[in-house]
UniProtKB/TrEMBL annotation, chain A:
Residues 33-343 form the Leucine-binding protein domain. Belongs to the leucine-binding protein family. Gene3D superfamilies: 3.40.50.2300. Pfam families: Peripla_BP_6. Keywords: Amino-acid transport, Signal, Transport. The keyword Transport applies. Residues 1-27 form the signal peptide. This is Amino acid ABC transporter substrate-binding protein. InterPro entries: BCAA_transport, Leu-bd, Peripla_BP_I, TAT_signal. It comes from the Bacteria. Transmembrane segments: none annotated. GO terms for biological process: amino acid transport.
TrEMBL record, chain B:
It is found in: Cell membrane. This is Branched-chain amino acid ABC transporter permease. It comes from Azorhizobium oxalatiphilum. Pfam families: BPD_transp_2. One of its GO terms (cellular component) is plasma membrane. The chain crosses the membrane at residues 6-24, 31-52, 58-78, 131-150, 185-206, 218-246, 258-282. Keywords: Cell membrane, Membrane, Transmembrane, Transmembrane helix. GO terms for molecular function: branched-chain amino acid transmembrane transporter activity. It is a multi-pass membrane protein.
Length: 408, 294
């Protein structure tokens, strides 16, 4: 191709015009940049894209309401591959290249633990949905910039212990899937149960992806338990319960709701699943915030928001962050915004459910954002203590029976 | 931007170290080692566990390399006399065993919870200075490894292992015992991999068994296949290409925002796979491959 002088001139001129045309080049200085670091691939893939889309959707909502503290939110999305090494590189990119001021939505505990030192060094916030207890305290949470929107494994364990006590069980046994979350649940239960003066008669840890868990189950049943507390997932729970039914024992089961859900009941049928107790941290389902989230999730993913509790958490992350920015004022730095996180979500203010509502109410006083994922009251470790729902399977349906509240 | 580039360079340097080890084993000697990540894991856990007990890093690094060598020795004894494809299976099994031990022996490795808060290298510095110091150390490791490798290639030992790779039967017929040489090569290469593991653990600061999956092994294999098997420059170039593929695709999205992150994740793997296929079809000797050889 021959380039004429005229074309060259036109090209040069248009290059010089470009910055003028794209208003963003100037507006960017006033934007608040968020990194969405989610498990798009890897073990968290089932949740990751929903989580990321909800960060984008919530940022849109905030921007549509005029932004927070006079700033628009700008989202930079990355995949952490559910792997610490990939997450570290992605986080470095977000911090150094995109200059984000907060990273939202890490899921695997390993990822959060690996990214936390980087966000601490950069003095920015890290909001996660991981369960590991190590994230509450230094070195991970050395600067109070970590916020966890998910109940810790410990709290799940405590909820299990409350339920076991309430149901009058005497001889519990635990069976845990060998990963940080499964073992965390079982250990949390053991700790809470023994604190109540109870005794755990056997603790079994099993390797994932087996065709049969008969050996582990026999070992558990040999302790003559009246209840087996599970730290498990759907696939393994299905097999374990089938094999348990074949033994003819009358043991009961308490399990987290990501294992004891309608899919499990459907797979097992009414006879086997009768009486299963499933415990879950409650998405704040009745709330206005949940309705807003649910509508956004339906639009983005074409299914009910109930299917992805983590997406409700990432939705809340953006809204709380925006409210904290609004409360902290236009010139606040990130640590100052982090301090406001406790305030805008904590108890004692006017309850609000959306960003627009909160922004308005902030003009006249304190607010208390009631989130889609939980009521979101952060304790001093930046952890939430959601309520737990207890559901029981009866005649092929699993339905909520009552709610357990933990003291923070 | 600088800090991010340095971070990529550090990870690349760690990969290069492993690629050099594998190049010695497969490229020069023809040992099909599918257990690279096992030695990587041993190195990482050695230094992580010792550091938790307060042992200084100038001791834990050599120990990480030594322990990786110590693991390679019996593996070599047991399986080196097998035909090469059987060795591949045994080494793959070995790396899975290492991972399962790390998962199950909680008293030692903290099991699935992983070991958080592994101290940084050069912790007295901070920011860019610290990152550059880490990179500098890794470059020194790599240069020493490359220098050693060049010496090996030109020595009688080097000619012997290349002869084993090219025709093991002929070597036997000449009255030499290939097994002993193979074990030495396996142990030497594993030292580099163990060292890489140690650097990785201190750089990332958190290790857990799920990080040591066979994918790492195959990434190293991709690197040396793309770079050129049997060439020292190949290990270097291959690791860099791999990193450019894996990390470069992040920036592709900044240019093409219409591709969603979900699609991009798949595209990334697809592109690496396509590159591998194209390499084997059109340039089986790799980018830095030697035209004069077969």
């Amino acid at each position: 191709m021959n380039i004429t002088r005229r074309q060259t001139l036109a090209g040069l001129a248009s290059t010089m015009l470009l910055p003028a045309l794209s208003g963003t080049a100037f507006a960017q200085a006033a934007n608040f940049r968020i990194g969405a670091l989610n498990p798009i691939t890897g073990s968290g893939a089932a949740y990751g894209s929903g989580m990321q889309k909800m960060i984008l959707a919530a940022a849109e909502v905030v921007n549509a309401a005029g932004g927070a503290a006079g700033k628009k939110l700008e989202v930079f999305a990355e995949d952490d591959q559910s792997q610490p090494q990939a997450a570290v590189l992605a986080a470095k990119k977000l911090i150094d290249v995109n200059k984000v001021q907060s990273i939202l939505g890490t899921w695997a505990s390993g990822v959060s633990l690996a990214v936390a030192p980087l966000t601490n060094d950069a003095n920015i916030m890290l909001m996660n949905t991981s369960g590991a207890p190590a994230l509450s305290v230094p070195p991970a949470n050395a600067k109070g910039l970590l916020f966890r929107f998910q109940a810790t494994n410990d709290r799940f364990g405590r909820a299990f212990a409350e339920v076991a006590k309430k149901e009058g069980f005497k001889r519990p046994v635990t069976m845990a899937f060998n990963n940080a979350s499964g073992i965390g649940n079982a250990d949390g239960f053991k700790k809470a149960w023994e604190a109540q003066g109870g005794k755990v008669y056997e603790s079994i840890v099993y390797e994932p992806n087996q065709p049969s868990y008969r050996a582990e189950l026999q070992k558990a049943l040999a302790a003559k338990p009246d209840v087996i507390v599970m730290g498990s997932y759907l696939a393994d729970t299905t097999i374990i319960l089938r094999e348990w039914f074949q033994t003819g024992e009358t043991t009961k089961f308490i399990m987290p709701a990501w294992a004891g859900n309608p899919d499990l009941v459907k797979a097992l049928g009414p006879e086997v699943s009768e009486g299963i107790i499933a415990v879950d941290s409650i998405s704040n389902e009745g709330s206005e915030a949940f309705k807003a989230y649910d509508a956004a999730y339906q639009k983005a993913m074409g299914q009910s928001g109930l299917n992805n509790v983590y997406a409700a958490m990432t939705w809340d992350m953006v809204i709380v962050l925006a409210l904290a920015m609004e409360a902290a004022g236009p010139n606040a730095d990130v640590p100052a915004i982090a301090k406001k996180m406790f305030e805008v979500a904590g108890p004692g203010g006017k309850p609000v459910a959306t960003f627009a509502e909160g922004k308005e109410a902030l003009k006249s006083g304190k607010i208390d954002y009631q989130g889609a994922s939980s009521v979101l009251d952060f304790d001093k470790f930046g952890d939430v203590t959601p309520d737990f729902s207890v559901s029981v399977a009866e005649k092929g349906k699993i339905e909520r029976k009552y709610v357990v509240k933990l003291s923070a | 931007m600088d800090a991010y580039l340095i971070a990529i360079a550090i990870i690349t340097a760690i990969y290069v170290l492993m690629a050099l080890g594998l190049n010695l084993q497969y490229g020069l000697t023809g040992l099909v080692n599918f257990g690279v990540v096992g030695f990587f894991c041993v190195g990482a856990y050695t230094t992580a566990i010792l550091s938790q007990k307060g042992v200084p890093q100038y001791i834990t690094f050599p120990l990480a390399a030594l322990l990786a060598m110590a693991f390679a020795w019996p593996l070599g004894l047991v399986s080196i006399r097998l035909r090469e494809d059987y060795f591949a299976i045994v080494s793959l099994g070995f790396s899975e065993v290492v991972r399962l031990v790390a998962t199950s022996e909680g008293w030692l490795t903290q099991g699935v919870q992983g070991i958080p808060g592994i101290p940084k290298m050069f912790g007295t510095f901070s920011g860019t200075t610290q990152a550059l110091a880490v990179l500098g150390l890794l470059v020194v490791f790599n240069l020493v490894a490359i220098a050693a490798m060049l010496r090996i290639v030109r020595s009688p030992f080097g000619r012997m292992i290349e002869a084993i790779r090219d025709n093991e039967e002929a070597v036997k017929a000449l009255g030499k015992d290939p097994a002993g040489f193979k074990i030495q090569v396996l142990v030497l290469g594993s030292a580099l991999t163990g060292l890489a593991g140690a650097a990785y653990a201190h750089y990332i600061g958190f290790i857990s068994p799920e990080q040591f999956i066979p994918l790492i092994t195959f990434q190293i294999w991709m690197a040396i296949i793309m770079g050129g098997v049997g060439r020292i420059s190949g290990a270097l170039v291959g690791a860099i290409i791999l990193m450019v593929f894996l990390e470069g695709s992040r920036f592709l999205r900044d240019v093409m925002p219409f591709i969603s992150e979900v699609a991009m994740a798949s595209v990334r793997l697809g592109v690496v796979g396509l590159a591998l296929v194209l390499f084997t079809m059109y340039r089986p000797q790799g980018l830095m491959g030697d035209f004069t050889r077969k």
